[in-house]
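Pilot study result, target chain (103 residues):
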Amino acid sequence: MPLKGKSPSPEGEYFTRVESEKLKKLAQKKQELLSEEEKKKLKELHWMRCPKCGMELHAIPYRGVTVDKCYSCHGLFFDNGEVEKITSEESGFLQALGSLFKD
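Predicted structure:
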C-alpha cells in the first residue's frame, strides 16, 4: 500500500490494471450463466441500492453525467462510460483514476 501523499508505483498501477481485468472477466462469466429471469429479479431487488451498505442511492447531476450517491456511507457510483466522460475533461488524479479502468 503506498504511503499517504505518495503516487503509486508503475508496477502497482500495472497490477491494479491486471486485477481489474481478472475481476471484469469473472463478472462477465457470472453474468452469462444467469438466466434472463434471474437477471430481472436481481435488478429489481438492487435497483438504486448502494452496493456497499444497501441503502438508497440518489441521482446527482455532475458535469453532464448522473452520479449515484449514497448518503449513508457517502459512496459515489458511476454507470458504464461515466468515469471516462468525466476524466476525459480532467487532468491529474481523475485522469489517472480513469486510466486504470479503461476497457
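One observation from the pilot: The mean pLDDT is 81. A full batch analysis is planned for the follow-on phase.
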